[in-house]
């Protein structure tokens, strides 16, 4: 099956800092999503981005499908950004079954 | 628009009891998916359903687990004779026809004691 690797596994920032999270995947995809799991466990949709670039406030994402990676940028981080960020892609042959990476645990300190 | 609604948020069951987890998809969505998040395994696909049909249950354990999405009412994930290893967060997601973006509910945290 498709492999999804996220880096770094852990990241600690001071409030106001910028960060880049990476997601590598092993095969072509039709669906790529970024999620934020907050400290209460809720999964929040950030981006649906199988290719191209999108921005939403302080967050933006870029997927280079031909090179099989996606980047999530967080600018001017806030303590509320803390949590785990997951990248998920569809498993080859099925555009609905998401395979999740292990996530990046982000801690933003005041 | 209300998002994907799951209930209960927390469920405690004794070993051997049954657990029923409910999921109402987003308005207008007809595709429902269940995922399980175990502490050391991450989020894993379990089953994909449309109204009255199981489309793909390749991620479901072979025994004790079942899912349905009836014509009327929420989707139900049922776990019979629960064991400690079933303790996990169970997430439901939904998507609309022709759009594969999945939206997740808040999850049900099952604890088996």
The secondary-structure element order of chain B is EEEEEEEEEEE
Helix content bin of chain B? under 10%
Strand content of chain A: over 45%
- Shape descriptor of chain B reads globular
SSE order of chain A in H/E notation? EEEEEEEEEEE
Determine the oligomeric state from the structure: heterodimer
Which residues of chain B sit in consecutive blocks of at least 5 with pLDDT less than 50?
none
End-to-end separation of chain A in angstroms reads 40 Å
Number of strands of chain A: 11
Low-confidence stretches of chain A: none
Report the radius of gyration of chain B as a whole number of Å: 13 Å
Query: Helical residue percent of chain A?
Result: under 10%
SSE layout and pairing:
The complex is a heterodimer of chains A (110) and B (113).
Chain A: E1 4-7, E2 10-14, E3 19-25, E4 32-37, E5 43-48, E6 52-56, E7 59-64, E8 69-74, E9 83-90, E10 98-100, E11 104-109
Parallel strand pairs in A: 2-11
Antiparallel strand pairs in A: 1-3, 3-8, 4-5, 4-9, 6-7, 7-8, 9-10, 9-11
Chain B: E1 5-7, E2 10-13, E3 19-24, E4 31-38, E5 42-50, E6 53-56, E7 65-68, E8 75-79, E9 88-95, E10 103-104, E11 108-112
Please give a structural write-up:
The complex is a heterodimer of chains A (110) and B (113). By secondary structure, chain A is an all-beta fold. Chain A has no helices and eleven strands. Chain A has strands at residues 4-7, 10-14, 19-25, 32-37, 43-48, 52-56, 59-64, 69-74, 83-90, 98-100, 104-109. In chain A, strands 2, 4, 5, 9, 10 and 11 form a six-stranded mixed β-sheet that branches. Chain A has a five-stranded antiparallel β-sheet with strand order 1-3-8-7-6, with no helix packed on it. In chain A, strand 9 and strand 10 form a beta hairpin. The radius of gyration of chain A is 13 Å and the shape is globular. Chain A starts with a strand and ends with a strand. The mean pLDDT of chain A is 94. Chain B is mostly beta strands and 113 residues long. In chain B, strands 2, 4, 5, 6, 9, 10 and 11 form a seven-stranded mixed β-sheet that branches. In chain B, strands 1-3-8-7 form a four-stranded antiparallel β-sheet, with no helix packed on it. Chain B is globular. Chain B starts with a strand and ends with a strand. Chains A and B meet through strand 5, strand 9 and strand 10 of A and strand 4, strand 5, strand 9 and strand 10 of B.
């Amino acid at each position: 099956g498709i492999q999804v690797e996220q880096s770094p596994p852990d990241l600690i920032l001071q409030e106001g800092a910028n960060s880049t999270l990476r997601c590598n995947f092993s095969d072509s995809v039709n669906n790529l999503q970024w999620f934020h799991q907050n400290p209460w466990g809720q999964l929040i949709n950030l981006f649906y981005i199988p290719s191209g670039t999108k921005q939403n406030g302080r967050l933006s994402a870029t997927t280079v499908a031909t090179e099989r990676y996606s980047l999530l940028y967080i600018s001017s981080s806030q303590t509320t950004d803390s949590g785990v960020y997951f990248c998920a892609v569809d498993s080859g042959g099925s555009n609905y079954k998401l395979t999740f990476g292990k996530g990046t645990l982000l801690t933003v300190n005041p | 628009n209300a998002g994907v609604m799951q209930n209960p948020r927390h469920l405690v069951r004794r070993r051997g009891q049954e657990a029923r987890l409910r999921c109402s998809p987003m308005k207008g969505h007809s595709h429902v998916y269940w995922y399980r998040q175990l502490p050391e395994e991450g989020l894993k696909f379990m089953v994909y359903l449309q109204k009255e049909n199981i489309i793909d249950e390749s991620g479901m354990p072979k025994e004790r687990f079942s899912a349905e999405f009836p014509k009327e009412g929420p989707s139900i994930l049922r776990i019979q004779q629960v064991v400690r290893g079933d303790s996990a967060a169970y997430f439901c997601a939904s998507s609309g026809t022709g759009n594969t973006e999945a939206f997740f509910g808040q999850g049900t945290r099952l604890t088996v004691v």
